[in-house]
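Re: export button greyed out
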Amino acid sequence: MKKDLISSKDFTKDELIELFSLAKRLKKEGYNEVMRGKTLALVFEKPSLRTRVTFSVAMFQSGGSVVYLAPADIQLGKRESVADVGRNLSRWVDFVAARTFAHSTVMELAENASIPVINALSDLEHPCQAYGDFLTIEEKLGRVEGITLTFIGDGNNVANSLLLTAAILGANFRIASPAGYEINGKFLMEAQNIAKNTGAKIELFNDPFEAVKGTDVIYTDVWASMGQEAEAEKRKKVFSKFQVNRKLVEASDKDVIVMHCLPAHRGEEITSDILDASYSVVLDEAENRLHIQKAIMHYLG
Ligand code: CP
Ligand code: NVA
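Workaround output, generated via the alternate export path:
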């Protein structure tokens, strides 16, 4: 039966460990011919730099091809139903990576496609980001189990996927968010259930300074995600105390690494000095998207 990657919980701990070692091998090898004759369709409802380029380069470096379908090209669910798009694509291509607004859209594509469908970001999750980020953590800290990642800011799609991945891998996850912008309760419950078996500790904070004490990783993301542009000004006020800056990094009282999925809004959720600091690994994260997505396609294909 075909396997999709829609949620970060779609891979078990053992599968993730295998995925990371495959990604590390592919990172060393660079080029191969595993995808010769295969095609990936990128179905995007939202803009992208990293995801579009890394999926495309991942295919090119593995001998395959890519068809990019921009938001206006397909008009998912308007020109044609999501299910029909999934059924048609299955007759021509070997993989679909979809970036959608509603999470249900990428789920519906997967349910109706006979080929693997990969979530390239939805309003609820960004599993490729979280997997690539934990690969980066493993490279930088030498392990993932038992480390503590502290997410500062909005309980958004990236936070949801990091939370689930941390729980699966047995990494501790903390999040500090302003009231009303906390992480989704359903994801929290799911992660807590998973954590019972893996020993991951999950903690919620309202004070970012409390949250970062003794952490290994400080992670942040934009305050207004794609689709929330109209709320951006309001959110700037709500999140003003949740900026990752020198004072906050120093409050960790530890040698931390700083992470951000990018794109960053310098001077908002993170200051430029921290984004560009020697302990910021944001470009390693961006690079690892290439290697992890190669591994994901190899695995699902
Ligand atoms: N981090 C990430 O997914 O970046 P893009 O939105 O540029 O693809
Ligand atoms: N939370 C951000 C992540 C971008 C990669 C967004 O959804 O816009």
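The mean pLDDT is 98. The button fix ships in the next patch.
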